[in-house]
Amino acid sequence: MADPKGFLKTRDRELPARRPVPIRLQDWREVYEHRPEDGPALARQAGRCMDCGIPFCHNGCPLGNLIPEWNDLARLGRWEDAIERLHATNNFPEFTGRLCPAPCETSCVLGINQPPVTIKNIEVSIADTAFAEGLVEPQVPGRLTNATVAVIGSGPAGLAAAQQLTRVGHTVAVFERDDAIGGLLRYGIPEFKMEKSVLDRRLAQMEAEGTRFRPGVAVGFDEGTTGTDLLERYDAVVLAMGATVRRELPVPGCDLDGIHQAMEYLPQGNRAALGEEVPGQISAEGKDVVIIGGGDTGADCLGTALRQGARSVTQLEIMPRPGEDRPEGQPWPTYPMIYRVASAHEEGGERVYATSTAQFVGDESGRVAELHVTEVDFVDGRPSPVAGTERVIPAQLVLLAMGFTSVETDGVVSQLGLEVDQRGRIVRDRQFATNVPGVFVAGDAGRGQSLIVWAIAEGRSAAAAVDSYLRGNTELPAPIEPTTMSIAV
Q: How far apart are CA 228 and CA 259, in angstroms?
């Protein structure tokens, strides 16, 4: 235990300060300050960890992170040992420490009657300190096997699988259809949540270990990349291309100009923030923006629109506003549906709950000009319009941030003849194997839309299954068994 009385001496959460809103809206840097004076606060928070007899934070984290162990090491400033413990279960703590909604914290035992330990901040601090002090080095395999593996998709699941398989000596190539490696980590996550230098330094480590990256290749469509081609060239294939079919909003006027999916808008905003030329960029500058969807992606759109100079931003959510406290039906240590404020919500805009879009109305040029919305009540679990609550919201830009529905079946999925279930997920067995020998699936493509920690856990577990398939056994850890259930957050 870091400090036997730590949770008694320090009862409140202490987090790094966020940069002032007027300043951070002028740039795309991460919102948090990183100051030397935050070090003692981090040590105090790590000292609050009780080293419980049954650490429920382990169960809350799909990766099974050894949280009490690295809390203790962080408090003592033993950064080399702390990052070793962190890397034992998580390939990319610098990603999860920034992007994960931290189910570990909602299952912290201290959280029963106190604010939980700031696990997520301690995690990212360990990772960043380790990189800054040169403690993160390539782990080059001692010898190579004769086996080759193709990983399709370079998001967190694909990268985790690739790094694990490379480290045991397999020759691994990661294919990505975008022009740079990273998947949604690269172009879906705004700079103010995770600067791309954080991604690039990890990719540099992977390249030094021997992982080969193939960006700009649309597997299943580009010449020489059909399903048959992959099985002829590689001993195993891992499909980690996510569930990228976007949820639509089929209401009158949905085909008007100025209505875009969030994943059309955010990648362009990311490219522009990095100084790239983006012809025909979708920009919020000077516009009334409406975001449909109240989750993290909607918040990412909000922060991006504000930085682009939107005149106004309204974020709509069809569900009622959650309460400040845990609902009775979601007791500790479950992940509760409560009201949360992201950094983007501090910066401006209006959040509107229990509201549904009835139609879009355009101007004479065929561009969206306004939304007609109505409040809703839920009857038998289904939204029902409330009479007399209709109103109009002006909008020259509408962003649909309603999530994803399924894997794309065109291309390699159909070419390989893979089984897909009714919800559009690739069917796999308990070893992450599909109905085609040598083809495995990890992450959202098999699980359905879920969290970054689940993606990394699935990538690590699928790597263990692939290694066992190739060599007859494996020493790689497998934190989870496959499931199609996801956590809604």
A: 38
Same domain, 381 and 262: yes
CATH code of the domain in which 177 resides: 3.50.50.60
Cα–Cα distance for residue pair 436/183, rounded to 1 Å: 25
User: How many angstroms separate the CA atoms of 52 and 105, rounded?
Assistant: 14
According to DSSP, the residues that pair with 377 across neighbouring strands are: 384
Tell me how far apart the alpha carbons of residues 255 and 250 are, in angstroms, rounded to a whole number: 9
The rounded distance, in Å, linking the Cα atoms of 348 and 83 is 37
What is the secondary structure of 87-133 as a DSSP string? HTT-S-HHHHHHH---HHHHT-GGGGTSPPP-HHHHHHHHHHHHHHT
CA distances from residue 444 to 60, 179, 217, 469, 478 in whole angstroms, order as listed? 19, 21, 20, 22, 17
Asked whether the bond before 55 is cis by omega within 30 degrees of 0, the reply is no
What contacts 319, CB < 8 A, 6 or more positions away? 294, 353, 354
Tokens of 268: 């362009």
**479 domain residue, yes or no:** no
Domain region containing 36 = 6-132
**pLDDT tens-digit profile of 453-480?**
999 999 999 999 999 999 999 999 998 8
Domain count, the chain: 3
Concatenated DSSP letters of 194-234: S-HHHHHHHHHHHHHHT-EEEET--TTTSTT-SHHHHHHH-
Q: Measured between alpha carbons, how far is 124 from 8 in angstroms, rounded to an integer?
A: 24
Domain boundary at 384, 402, 420, which? 402
Shared-domain flag, residues 199 and 271: no
Residue 289 per-residue DSSP state: E
Residue 392: inside a domain: yes
Contact (Cβ atoms closer than 8 angstroms) between residue 125 and residue 42 = yes
- Three-state secondary structure along 69-95? HHHHHHHCCCHHHHHHHHHCCCCCHHH
Contacts of 298 (CB under 8 A, 6+ apart): 262, 291, 292, 315, 317, 399, 401
Which residues are paired to 334 by β-bridges?
none
Q: Is the dihedral of CA 297, 301, 304, 306 positive or negative?
A: negative
Residues 238 and 461: their CA atoms lie apart, in Å, by: 12
* Residues 124, 452 contacting (CB under 8 angstroms): no
Beta carbons of 388 and 399 less than 8 angstroms apart: no
pLDDT at 37: 60
Residues of the chain with pLDDT under 50: 484-489
pTM over 0.70: yes
